[in-house]
């Protein structure tokens, strides 16, 4: 946790967001979106905080979009950003940040595993002067053993390879000040690993522990394949370590091959070589061929990202935008609206 700017006790007591934006990417959350909206309103009512909710429809194919439009019609402080297709959660979060108007922005999932009643604790960190307040899950005991192990290894590898450290247990649930949010918005790379982006921008950061709640309904959208691809995206977006490792790996293999050549040459000179080296040759060629393919694959991953970045395409397109009404954004009483 980094140190916040020096602010007086009086400032800490009085300082509060004039408007809090709550950004939630939504993909096929027909069963949870209404309850999520209700839970957020309840939490903001209890906190007495003026707020807006920015829902980003990331290409939902169920009835989630229809329900979000109904929520916008009933609640004037709700915005719907309907993307033209599924662009992925990382870009959906970016779209939400682009359309958020608050002095502070909370990014969270819409499946209610990020409890809305944690938001006032994030606001408290903002009032203390922190620009980034991460919600850190206390434990992963509810995850499968394999998933816990791979998550631990992933964060350990990212901390050892990356230029900035990722907080283990920190997901997408966090609060950003307007300054931090604007910094994140200025980074427009196509291949986005938002946990790395949030960490890279810096600014004073605080962590708040919380317990992950069970899903209200439905199933997770991240299977093993998506998590694997997400990990590759995170590593290649966050660090050049795989390229450096490929270089070192190639040097090590070349050195071992040179030493092996010296050993075989000495053996042939001193003892002769009555046995043909066919098995050794096959094993060596297969090993070197595998190493070459691995290195080419790593280079290809980075080259593909360079190719996509040079296209300079927009991150997303908006199919429909239903913006919150300006007159409703400054009113804390909106939190007391009908359920």
Residue stretches low in confidence (pLDDT < 50, at least 5 long) are: 8-14, 333-339
Alpha carbon gyration radius: 25 Å
Strand order within the widest beta sheet: 7-5-6-4-1-2-3-8
Q: Termini separation (Å)?
A: 37 Å
CATH architecture of the largest domain: Alpha-Beta Complex
CATH topology tier name of the largest domain: Spore Coat Polysaccharide Biosynthesis Protein SpsA, Chain A
**How would the global form be characterised?**
elongated
Give the strand content: 5-15%
CATH class of the largest domain: Alpha Beta
What is the total tally of β strands? Answer: 8
Annotation field: number of helices: 12
How is the main sheet built? 8 strands, mixed
Which secondary structure elements does this structure contain, and how are they paired or packed?
Elements: H1 9-14, E1 20-26, H2 33-47, E2 51-57, H3 64-74, E3 78-83, H4 89-99, E4 104-107, H5 119-127, E5 132-137, H6 145-161, E6 170-177, H7 178-185, H8 194-200, E7 205-210, H9 224-238, H10 241-271, H11 278-311, E8 318-322, H12 326-329
Parallel strand pairs: 1-2, 1-4, 2-3, 5-7
Antiparallel strand pairs: 3-8, 4-6, 5-6
């Amino acid at each position: 946790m980094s140190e916040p700017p020096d602010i007086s006790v009086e400032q800490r007591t009085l300082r509060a967001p004039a408007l809090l934006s709550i950004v939630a990417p939504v993909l096929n959350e027909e069963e949870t979106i209404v309850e999520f909206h209700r839970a957020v309103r309840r939490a903001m009512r209890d906190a007495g905080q003026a707020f807006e909710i920015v829902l980003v429809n990331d290409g939902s194919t169920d009835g989630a979009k229809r329900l979000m439009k109904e929520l916008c019609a009933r609640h004037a402080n709700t915005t719907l950003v309907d993307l033209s297709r599924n662009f992925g959660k990382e870009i959906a979060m970016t779209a939400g940040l682009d359309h958020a108007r608050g002095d502070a922005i909370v990014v969270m999932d819409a499946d209610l595993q990020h409890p809305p009643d944690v938001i006032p604790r994030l606001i408290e960190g903002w009032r203390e002067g922190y620009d980034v307040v991460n919600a850190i899950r206390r434990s992963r005991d509810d995850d499968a053993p394999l998933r816990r192990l791979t998550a631990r290894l992933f964060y350990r590898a990212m901390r050892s390879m990356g230029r900035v450290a990722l907080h283990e247990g920190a997901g997408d649930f966090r609060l950003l000040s307007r300054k931090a949010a604007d910094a994140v918005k200025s980074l427009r790379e196509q291949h986005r690993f938002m946990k790395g982006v949030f960490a890279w921008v810096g600014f004073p950061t605080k962590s708040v522990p919380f317990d992950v709640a069970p899903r209200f309904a439905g199933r997770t959208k991240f299977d093993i394949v998506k998590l694997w691809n997400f990990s590759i995206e995170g590593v290649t977006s966050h660090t050049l370590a795989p390229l450096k490792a490929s270089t070192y790996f190639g040097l090590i293999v070349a050195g071992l091959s040179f030493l092996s050549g010296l050993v075989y040459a000495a053996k042939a000179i001193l003892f002769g070589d009555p046995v043909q080296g066919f098995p050794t040759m096959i094993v060596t060629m297969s090993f070197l061929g595998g190493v070459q393919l691995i290195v080419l694959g790593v280079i290809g991953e980075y080259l593909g990202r360079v190719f996509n970045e040079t296209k300079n395409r927009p991150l997303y397109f908006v199919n429909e935008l239903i913006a919150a009404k300006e007159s409703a954004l400054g009113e804390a009483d909106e939190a007391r609206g009908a359920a």
